[in-house]
């Protein structure tokens, strides 16, 4: 008899979610969804290892990996000098 697996415990579901979040990042650029996509992709790859993990543990791993990815992207792609560009003169003046 075949055991029913929960949808969140399937590796391909997490990789599909990572792909969907990556596509969503293309539509709304700004590294908003890319950290989540990286986190979901890593969780999907971790589920290829035959381990049994509950939903709370998977969501915790996903949240931690997404935060690490987001912080890494923020550090890698931040503006030079760490500040926003301030324009003092208008082009129409």
Please explain how this structure is put together.
The chain is mostly helical and 93 residues long. The chain has a domain at 15-76. Helices cover 56% and strands 0% of the residues. It has helices at 11-27, 34-46, 55-76. The longest helix is centred in the last third of the chain and has 22 residues, at 55-76. The termini are far apart. The mean pLDDT is 86.
Continuous helix count? 3
Helix and strand composition category = mainly alpha
Q: How much of the residues is beta strand, in percent? A: under 5%
Parts with pLDDT < 50 across at least 5 consecutive residues: none
Largest sheet entry: none
Give the CA-based shape: elongated
Which whole number gives the mean pLDDT? 86
Please give the number of β-strands: 0
Order of helices and strands: HHH
Oligomer: single chain
What is the CA–CA distance across the termini? 77 Å
What is the rounded Rg? 19 Å
Q: What proportion of the residues is helical, as a percent range? A: 55-70%
Protein name: NfeD-like C-terminal domain-containing protein
Organism: Roseovarius litorisediminis
Keywords: Membrane, Transmembrane, Transmembrane helix
Transmembrane segments: 6-24, 31-49, 55-73
């Amino acid at each position: 008899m075949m055991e029913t697996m929960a949808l969140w415990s399937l590796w391909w579901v997490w990789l599909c979610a990572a792909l969907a979040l990556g596509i969503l990042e293309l539509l709304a650029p700004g590294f908003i969804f890319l950290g989540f996509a990286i986190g979901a992709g890593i969780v999907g790859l971790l589920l290829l290892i035959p381990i049994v993990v509950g939903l709370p543990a998977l969501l915790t791993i996903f949240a931690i990996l997404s935060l690490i990815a987001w912080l890494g992207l923020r550090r890698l792609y931040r503006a030079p000098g760490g500040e926003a560009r301030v324009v003092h003169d208008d082009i129409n003046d």
